[in-house]
Amino acid sequence: MSEATSGPTPGPTPGPEEPPFEEALRELEELVGRLERGETGLEDALAAWERGEELVRFCLGKLDTAQGRIDELGRDPADAEPDA
Q1: How many CB atoms lie within 10 A of CB 12?
Q2: Which of 8, 35, 53, 65 is least surrounded by Cβ atoms within 10 Å, i.e. has the fewest?
Q3: Does position 77 have pLDDT exceeding 50, yes or no?
Q4: What is the pLDDT averaged over residues 12-22?
Q5: How far apart are CA 40 and CA 34, in angstroms?
Q6: Is the pTM of this model over 0.90?
Q7: Residue 75: what are its φ and ψ, rounded to 5°?
Q8: Domain that holds residue 56
Q9: Residue 46 lies in a domain
Q10: How far apart, in whole angstroms, are the C-alpha atoms of residue 63 and residue 74?
């Protein structure tokens, strides 16, 4: 019991400190470049791959959210069902 926690344990989903989309995409591009050039050893390559998977999921989620907002903004208000 010598370990004290100062707050909640971070979970797998990003919190309010999540990076902007552009920063995550830039990191992903750098990881892909390093992997393509073979600049990493096996363990580092595996860690980079795992981080890349996280970044892909994060970026896809951001893009899906943006697409949903665009779709919503593009709807014709006349097509909306009237409130009963």
Answers
A1: 6
A2: 8
A3: yes
A4: 73
A5: 7
A6: no
A7: -70, 140
A8: 21-73
A9: yes
A10: 16
Is the alpha carbon torsion for 26, 27, 33, 36 positive or negative? Answer: negative
What pLDDT is recorded for position 5? 40
Structural domain includes residue 14: no
Q: Tens digit of pLDDT for each residue in 35-61?
A: 999 989 999 999 999 999 999 999 999
43: in domain: yes
> Does residue 30 belong to any structural domain of this protein?
yes
Burial bucket for residue 79 (CB in 10 Å: 0-12, 13-18, 19+): exposed
Distance CA 53, CA 61 (A): 12
- The SS3 assignment for 20 reads coil
Helices of type H across 1-84? 21-37, 42-74
